Amino acid sequence: MDTVAIMVVAVGLAMDAFAVSVSSGMAMRTERVRAALRMALSFGSFQAVMPLIGWSAGLGLRDLITDLDHWLAFALLSLIGCRMIYQALRRGSRQELARPMNLQLLLLLSVATSIDALAVGISFAFLQILIAKPIIVIGLVTFGLSFLGVMLGSRLGRLLGRRIEVLGGLMLIGIGVKILIEHLA
Known about the structure:
- The chain has helices spanning 3-27, 32-62, 69-89, 103-126, 132-156, 160-184.
- The protein is mostly helical.
- The chain has one domain.
């Protein structure tokens, strides 16, 4: 997988974390830089670790389904993308976050926004992609976008949140289609 594709996947995966960060930023009145760093570190770390866990699990299954790997990667990325779009468009799906800086809530949000990265890690194993570069890029992109999301939250308003999640879902579907086309061509 080339660097551009990894960046697109990273940005697509980071959209949930960015949307949550924007929402959180809207609720914060003080200590935004400290909160932004804490949230970005948590989200970025979880987004980097989850693909590694998925990739490790996927390695054990890789030899069993080599002929189907591109279909599986397409299906996983498309399902994740469609789920992101559905959740973004579903009425009432957007959580109102009040002060997500307590440790339990922050960890819960970190896991919730990184579940998609676990499935992406599995697809990386099926595609025989070395995991080091993608997890570093995914973690750094998520860190940066999460930090930015908190800082810009009060200025961007509530309207942008759902659009960001839809964009992230479309990006993941696009990568899935690209993988499928490359393997079928």
